[in-house]
Write a structure and sequence with these properties.
The complex is a heterodimer of chains A (about 375) and B (about 270).
Chain A lengths: L4 E5 H12 L3 E4 L6 H10 L6 E4 L3 H13 L4 E6 H17 L3 E6 L17 H6 L9 E2 L4 H18 L2 E4 L3 H5 L1 E5 L44 E3 L13 H16 L2 H4 L2 E4 L6 E5 L1 H16 L4 E6 L1 E3 L3 H11 L2 E6 L4 H10 L5 E5 L8 H10 L2
Parallel strand pairs in A: 2-3, 2-4, 4-5, 5-7, 6-7, 11-12, 11-14, 14-15
Antiparallel strand pairs in A: 1-8, 6-13, 10-12
Helix pairs in contact in A: 1-2, 1-6, 3-4, 10-13, 11-12
Chain B lengths: L23 H15 L6 E5 L14 E4 L5 H11 L4 E7 H7 L1 H10 L4 E6 L2 E2 L5 E2 L23 H8 L3 E6 L3 H13 L4 E6 L3 H5 L7 H11 E3 H4 L4 H4 L3 E8 L5 H11 L6
Parallel strand pairs in B: 1-2, 1-3, 3-4, 4-8, 7-8, 9-10
Antiparallel strand pairs in B: 5-6, 7-10
Classes of the chains: A alpha/beta (about 375), B alpha/beta (about 270).
Chain lengths: ~375, ~270
């Protein structure tokens, strides 16, 4: 018997990916263009005894998500730009209290209400710098319906493995387009669950670094009881203002992600071996970029694409290596005013020019625009 | 024999942060007595708070404790309760935390009638930040941000809770210490969202700005304004002028949220996994 296939929308695929990953809790608030995730899960979760709650606002949804996750659930929320802004307060809480959860954010225009349902890629900085203070950030940017399904699963795995909130951010085109999807068999993709404590309850400390940078996490309502706070905390979970402890803990929280970038960073190299022009693209824009690269090759231009699948941590090392190898130019097409452009410029350290194509008018970047930019490279 | 509070207190976590004369400690003791009366199992009890002086309470209690962000206790707690309906979930916090920044979560927790108990210590002020006016600061009273008197009208928390759909609403005061645990016991036993407002005092940031010469004077005021609901039935509107009703103000049986969601699971054909 062949694998199960379906014709699905990106958002529907995200919901089904979450279920494959073991999601059993959803808290959300309606917002276009991500609501389909909530709609699918409101129907599917109760079938498996899971919990779905529509909260009173975006902040409340994020709060319920964290509460559910602390009580042992694998929890998902879905939102879009304005909702992501509202959720930032508690995304920071999730980071400092180290609570695994997944935030699925469909990128539409902004700032503010912006252009609802128009596509955009302008939330990528918000994923990293939206909440105040230093914190770890993992953000995945799928480019197809199949990849959305798989990246949602990977997001759950990463959040459980590193005990931190993880974001999946398709642009509106990826979220709303319909494509063929092939479902993996049960057991085909590894599912990672959070590390549970093995020590006797009286010895349990929720931030015990003797187990490494990612301490085991117990659940509320289990044999372990502990304290959780948004204040800077000690290994036992209680607040502290002791300088050395705060410094060490803050550094550990960031290190557990940044220090494992090789495990988290995922990308696709398309025709890069001999590429002189490298397009750095992600999401739906990468689909135009692939087309443009193919067209360029027909015309004898040695073009290739570095496609970001993980946006944060940003693949600085890989792009710098490409730049040093010798590249005539990088091109960064994106549906924002240069967020990726600035990052690529920064990490390639002046080894090659970086040309930007920026679009914020709610229209996708088309292959012709990218091809034209390639022809500008001398 | 004196009551042993220590059995619910986390070893080594006292002294607490509250100022001398603050009533929060009286409320905490009442809560502990209530927990003991009900024989609440520590591992199966979550105490959830937001931000503020009162919200530091969970850190002292030896249960599953969650000190969340400002105003968000009810929403975090909703997540905990939905995930583990078998847990006893108690929320604690102050008037600013619960009725200003957390007002939306508060009214919706009331509306859902989710089985949790919310203990609000109403001391009419933002104490931790130094005495700014809150939604319950009386009209024309002084706070650090109302130097000419408070122009705002104030919330009646109990009425707000009843209006929003809470199915058990009670009020006590920090003066009437022996009543506190009784109200909390009844609130926790009630299936649905229960609210216990405790009129409290903040001598440090509210009392001294509003001509209270001492903590005793503040406590005496609580004693004087409080009228038990039963006694109020025999009093005239004139006699009730300036008084505050205490005791169980409202109680009704209505479908509880987690039980209703369990029915959703059944209608969807799902079982617990």
């Amino acid at each position: 018997m062949g694998k199960k296939v379906a014709f699905l929308q990106g958002n529907e695929a995200a919901a089904h990916g979450a279920l494959y990953a073991g999601c059993n809790f959803f808290a959300g608030y309606p917002i276009t263009p991500s609501t389909e995730v909530a709609e699918v899960l409101s129907a599917e979760l109760p079938k498996i005894g899971g919990k779905f709650i529509q909260m009173e606002d975006e902040i409340g949804a994020m709060a319920a998500l964290l509460g559910g996750a602390l009580a042992g659930s694998k929890a998902l929320t879905s939102t879009s730009g304005p909702g992501l802004s509202l959720k930032q307060e508690l995304i920071g809480y999730g980071c400092i209290a180290e609570i695994p959860c997944v935030i699925y954010n469909v990128m539409r225009g902004g700032p503010s209400t912006g252009m609802p349902t128009g596509p955009s890629q302008s939330d990528v900085m918000c994923a990293k710098w939206g909440t105040h203070g230093d914190h770890p950030a993992i953000c995945l940017v799928p480019a197809s319906v199949q990849e959305t399904y798989e990246e949602v699963i990977r997001a759950f795995n990463l959040s459980e493995k590193y005990r931190t909130p993880v974001m999946v951010m398709p642009d509106e085109i990826v979220a709303h387009m319909r494509e063929r999807i092939v479902f993996p068999e049960k057991g085909e993709i590894e599912i990672i669950d959070r590390k549970s404590p093995t020590v006797p309850p009286e010895q349990y400390k929720p931030y015990d670094t003797s187990f490494g940078d990612v301490p085991p996490l117990a659940s509320f309502g289990s044999e372990y009881r502990f304290h959780v706070t948004g204040l800077n905390k000690m290994q036992d979970g209680f607040p502290t203002t002791k300088a050395s402890v705060v410094q060490e803990e803050e550094e550990r929280q960031v290190r557990k992600v940044e220090g494992n970038a090789d495990d988290i960073v995922k990308f696709e190299e398309y025709l890069l071996d001999d590429a002189e022009i490298v397009v750095v693209a992600f999401g739906s824009t990468s689909r135009s970029a692939r087309y443009a690269v193919n067209e360029a090759r027909k015309e004898g231009i040695k073009a290739g694409m570095f496609r970001l699948i993980t946006y944060w941590p940003f693949p600085e090392k890989q792009l710098l290596a490409l730049a040093k190898r010798g590249v005539k130019a990088f091109i960064t097409p994106e549906m924002n005013l240069g967020m990726t452009h600035g990052l690529v410029k920064g990490c390639t350290e002046g080894n090659a020019p970086v040309l930007g194509i920026f679009r914020v008018d709610g229209e996708p970047i088309n292959p012709g625009q990218i091809l034209d930019k390639m022809k500008e490279v001398k | 024999m004196a009551f042993d509070y220590e059995k619910y207190i986390r070893p080594g976590k006292l002294p607490h942060i509250w100022c001398p004369g603050c009533g929060h400690g009286i409320v905490m003791k009442g809560m502990i007595r209530a927990m003991d009366t009900l024989g609440l199992e520590k591992n199966n009890t979550a105490i959830v708070s937001g931000i503020g002086c009162a919200s530091r309470l969970p850190g002292y209690i030896d249960c599953c404790t969650l000190h969340t962000a400002h105003g968000r206790a009810a929403a975090f707690a909703t997540g905990v309760k939905m995930a583990k309906p078998e847990m006893t979930v108690i929320l604690v916090g102050g008037d600013g935390d619960g009725t200003a920044i957390g007002g939306n979560h508060f009214i919706h927790a009331c509306r859902r009638n989710i089985d949790m108990t919310y203990i609000i210590m109403n001391n009419y002020i933002y104490g931790m930040t130094g005495g700014q006016f809150s939604p319950t600061t009386p009209h024309m009273h002084k706070a650090s941000t109302t130097p000419y008197g408070n122009p705002d009208p104030s919330f009646d928390i109990a009425k707000l809770a009843i209006g929003a759909g809470a199915t058990f609403v009670a009020r006590g005061t920090a003066f009437h210490a022996n009543q506190i645990d009784k109200l909390i016991v009844e609130a926790i036993q009630h299936k649905g969202f229960s609210v216990v407002e405790i009129l409290d005092d903040c001598p440090t940031t509210y009392g001294r700005r509003n001509k209270f010469k001492s903590v005793i004077e503040m406590m005496n005021r609580l004693k004087e304004v409080a009228v038990p609901v039963k006694a109020a039935e025999k009093m005239s509107p004139e006699q009730l002028q300036g008084k505050v009703l205490t005791g169980v103000l409202y109680k009704e049986d209505k479908p509880e949220y987690c039980s209703e969601y369990q029915k959703v699971i059944e209608r969807a054909g799902g079982g617990a996994r």
